[in-house]
Amino acid sequence: MTALDHDVAAQLKDAAGAEGWSEDQGEIAPHLSEWRGRWQGKTSLLLKPDNTAAIARILMICNQTRTAIVPQGGNTGLVGGQIPASGEVLLSLERMNRIRRVSADENLLVAEAGVVLAEVQRVATGAGRLFPLSLAAEGSCTIGGNISTNAGGVHVLRYGMMRDLVLGLEVVLANGSTLDLMKGLRKDNTGYDLKQLFIGAEGTLGVITAAMLKLVPQPASCVTVLTAISGVSSALPILNELQYESGGQVQAFEIMQRRAIELVLRQIPGTSNPLPGTHEWLLLIEIGNSAALDSTHATEQVLSRAIDHGLASDAVFANSLKQREELWRLRESIPEAQRKQGRSIANDISVPLARLGEFVDMAEAAVRGVLSQAVCMTFGHAGDGNLHFAILAPEHQDALISAQREMEDAVHECVWRLNGSISAEHGIGVARREAFARQKQVEEIRTMAALKRALDPNNILNPGKLLSAGLP
Ligand SMILES: Cc1cc2nc3c(=O)[nH]c(=O)nc-3n(C[C@H](O)[C@H](O)[C@H](O)COP(=O)(O)OP(=O)(O)OC[C@H]3O[C@@H](n4cnc5c(N)ncnc54)[C@H](O)[C@@H]3O)c2cc1C
């Protein structure tokens, strides 16, 4: 661990303010391990300032003294990007937690980076609007983390990724200057759109301190249905028909393999499957109704035709809020059930929509070719071509761990052959750094490295994450 110079630490503590730092390892400990316990970090200093000016001073000091610093929001990231791996100073945004403004008329909300996503959703709902980003970690993850990872979740199909929901940003650069990109204009073609640089940058180009977010109308009601389908490739024709019939109002289109549901039923008390049986693949579909158009009847018709054509075999509609919550609980509990059952290998891939089925077949065969006892389990955002492809081996954990690298490479090779991406929404962090370096075109990496050098010439911001140290 690089020892932090005593004098530099004193300057940083002074900049963060009396309540804005901690050296207490008991307080620091929860910030150093991530949700699945994969990466363990270390640091002697946690900074937790509560205003942008303090963050600007902190970064100025870090830049002048070449002190590395790692930004952290809710610590729910799944690729290790928020963990100080080598004793860097840890900058928590947890006290940057104010909602600065909400305007229903303008359909926007201004939140500081440390506001938890569920709180933004709650305030938006209170103003009669919807903030549509939704993911299983929404009770802990923060707006700054969501922006820095360009988070996805279950509503991307209808509302886009985080990138599509950001109207403006306030960012502190590595040299301590503050970029105020908060005009919030819907149209502005005056040069490069700088805010886009920081979205998905995983804290390597600047520290996001606040954001202006887009709000949308709340659906008047929802049609929520769980349906059993004959295979992964049946999903796309069903989606296209539903989009046509509902005027593009499908807001969630999630796929789950039977093994994923069985794991949830085993690991999460109080869950039940309303479509028990031998169905190998299930879709959880949700369509937002406008005040003028209720898609329930159209959805019934589409699924009934799908059953006639052998694309689906059964369906159950949620008839109450409670039933809707129960269906969503099945889907949202999969990551928690996966964590509870022990070690697993997570892949977060995307491929062209028409090749989802091909990917599952190829990847399952490739994994079994490496470790015959491995069990593959797929779930995810089928409407976005994004699958979470997990590899488990409950009774062969040691074999799983020793074959991990080989199995990941085998899955990435399938993704590569299908012209897909090795990270659809979780990012690169440290987990995917090597695969990223192998699979990205050299010119793409060179351009990213040039941006990094321009904005952070001393490499103080989250070093070693996303781009490795030996930049081209
Ligand atoms: C159960 C579970 C389900 C999940 N489901 C999804 C899903 O459906 N879709 C999805 O996209 N993700 C999902 N995730 C991953 C995770 O929740 C998201 O990546 C989330 O956006 C991270 O937010 P955070 O505040 O926890 O960020 P952190 O984990 O704290 O940080 C993530 C990255 O952002 C950087 N960062 C954080 N705050 C800032 C800031 N203010 N300025 C600059 N850089 C910053 C960090 O350095 C790090 O690189 C899931 C995670 C869990 C545990």
Secondary structure layout:
Elements lengths: L5 H11 L4 E2 L2 H4 L17 E2 L4 H14 L3 E4 L16 E4 L6 E5 L4 E5 L4 H10 L2 E2 L12 H6 L7 H4 L6 E7 L5 E4 L13 H4 L8 E8 L1 E2 L3 E9 L5 H12 L3 E8 H10 L13 E9 L6 H13 L3 E6 L3 H12 L1 H7 L3 E7 L5 H15 L4 E7 L4 E7 L4 H6 L1 H14 L15 H7 L2 H14 L17
Parallel strand pairs: 2-4, 3-4
Antiparallel strand pairs: 1-2, 5-6, 6-10, 7-11, 8-9, 8-10, 12-14, 12-15, 13-14, 13-17, 16-18, 17-18
Flavin-adenine dinucleotide binds next to strand 3, helix 5 and strand 10.
Short key terms for the protein model shown above:
globular; five-stranded antiparallel beta sheet; 35% helix; Alpha-Beta Plaits; Uridine Diphospho-n-acetylenolpyruvylglucosamine Reductase, domain 3; binds flavin-adenine dinucleotide; alpha+beta; 4 domains; 472 residues; Uridine Diphospho-n-acetylenolpyruvylglucosamine Reductase, domain 2; 18 strands
